[in-house]
Amino acid sequence: MMQISGAQWVALVLLGGSLACGAWAVDEKPPAALREADRAALMREAAPLARRAIENALERRPQPTDSQLPAALRQRRAGAFVTVMVEGATRACMGTVSPTAPNLGQEIIAAAVMAAGGDPWHRPLQAADLKRARIEVTVCGAMISIPDWRCYSPARDGLLVRMGHRTGVVLPGEARTARWAYREACRKASVRPGQEPELFRFEALRLVEPQH
């Protein structure tokens, strides 16, 4: 397990394991600052790409190259999570908070491939799961240190808890209350009673696949 230190930590990947947090690239805008046209393009392209990447992973087909990616996903960098929902329950969820790939499209593909078979909290996906699944892509923004879990809105923001080199994340919309999100993130980060972890909230843009 790698140690994480400094203002811009870089690590991967799990909702219940070691995660990354860092600043957006200087030429990129956080989710809240995106123009309506940019948001519309991401809404149109992100979830279908994640679904296609999962299908490719399950069927052992090549993934799209940069030249095959939509411009909206090729021209920006950001961390991203891919969540697979089946009948209202999380079937798989993997990703990174800060970007590790050259562009958002490749970030989504990497997260989708991990969700297909690398989520330690769930068994590997099957083709039958995908037929009943709804795909969500969460595009992550900058991390903001907060003094208390009450400073976080579970409907709007993601929450990251850090205790040493262990981290836990709850994505926007996963929790109904900030208290539950804090407890869940602490559980994932293995925070013991009496310990005081560092808390961060992060902006996020949630892109949900339309109902089939």
Structural topology:
Blueprint lengths: L35 H24 L11 H4 L5 E7 L2 E7 L8 H14 L9 H5 L1 E14 L10 E7 L2 E5 L7 H11 L9 E11 L4
Antiparallel strand pairs: 1-2, 1-3, 3-6, 4-5, 4-6
Helix pairs in contact: 1-3
Write up this protein.
- The protein is of the alpha+beta class and 212 residues long.
- The chain has a single domain, classed as Hypothetical protein ph0010, domain 1 (Glycoprotein, Type 4 Pilin), CATH 3.30.700.20.
- Helices cover 27% and strands 24% of the residues.
- The N and C termini lie far apart (40 Å).
Defining traits:
single chain, 5 helices, alpha+beta, Glycoprotein, Type 4 Pilin, globular, 212 residues
For the record, what CATH class applies? Alpha Beta
Number of strands: 6
Under CATH, the homologous superfamily reads: Hypothetical protein ph0010, domain 1
Strand content: 15-25%
**What is the architecture at the second tier of CATH?**
2-Layer Sandwich
Overall pLDDT metric: 83
How many domains, as an integer? 1
Q: What structural class is derived from the secondary structure elements? A: alpha+beta
